[in-house]
Amino acid sequence: xxxxxxxxxxxxxxxxxxxxxxxxxxxxxxxxxxxxxxxxxxxxxxxxxxxxxxxxxxxxxxxxxxxxxxxxxxxxxxxxxxxxxxxxxxxxxxxxxxxxxxxxxxxxxxxxxxxxxxxxxxxxxxxxxxxxxxxxxxxxxxxx
Length: 144
Hints:
By secondary structure, the protein is of the alpha+beta class. It has helices spanning 20-31, 92-102, 136-143, and strands at 12-17, 34-35, 45-48, 54-59, 68-70, 80-82, 85-88, 111-112, 118-123, 129-134.
């Protein structure tokens, strides 16, 4: 008998930020997300992605960015600062340009990972590290 997965999908993610209002404005301006309701002093913010999923920006005094070190990601087993969340996009090159213009850390260039599509690692204003990828079929069409 095949066991059914009891988890369906990730409904939302919670991100630590130092200044909720500044981060919400950055997520709107740079990533194009929608702020669900006005930011109340001392509370968090809900950012809505194109898919309808939510990112909660929660105040984290002193900052504790999302990332961790692993030796299980690179072929040579060297330590790598890992991202806990990978997003999907339909326009990785426009996203890359917006990230660079905003002044946050972005890896050197968009990487073509063949069957795994185009990929890019970046950090937000608070140092939360993420990866974004674009499906191979969309990546091929974008190159034409």
